[in-house]
Amino acid sequence: MNKPVALVKDDVTPKVPFDTNIINNHTYLNNLTPWTLDTEIKKLTQHLKNCFSDDDKDNSLWKYFSLSSKAKPLDDQSKEEDKLGYLSLQVDALRKELVKNNHKEKIKHKPKNDSSE
Predict the structure, then answer these.
(1) 12-21: which pairs have CB atoms within 8 A and are 24 or more residues apart?
(2) pLDDT digits over 58-108, tens only?
C-alpha cells in the first residue's frame, strides 16, 4: 500500500479533492486533439517518471502524514478469528432485524381501543 502515487486530471476539472492536493498532480488538455497528443504524452510520461523515480518510492500521502504502517499478510489464525468475528456480526444483525420485525408485528396486530364506551 505504501506505493508511489501519480495523480492525473484534465484541465476541465477545477481542482483535485482537498485531501490529495498535496500530491504532485498532472493536468492534461481534455480535448486531446491530434496536434497536442505528442506533447501531452511526453508531459504525462515525465510526470509518471517523476512519481516513480528511484529517489521517491513512497506514497506521497503517507510521507506527508508520517504514516508508516504497512500491509502484511494475515496468518491462518487471524483468518479464522476474522471469519468468526464476521459471523458474529451477521448473527447480531439478524437478531436486531428479528427484534425490529417482531415489534412491527405487535404494533400491526395490536387491538385498537374502542372509544364508544
Answers:
(1) 19/61, 20/61
(2) 666 666 666 666 666 666 666 778 888 888 888 998 998 898 888 877 777
Domain boundaries, the chain: 7-64, 73-111
Which of 72, 60, 44 is CA-nearest to residue 5?
Answer: 60
Could you count the other beta carbons within 10 Å of the beta carbon of residue 23?
A: 17
pTM above 0.85, yes or no: no
Provide the Cα torsion 74, 75, 80, 84; round to 10°: -40
Contact 39, 107 (CB under 8 A): no
Using CA atoms, how far residue 58 sits from 20, 23, 62, 66, in Å, is: 15, 12, 7, 11
Q: Which three cell numbers stand for residue 64?
A: 506527508
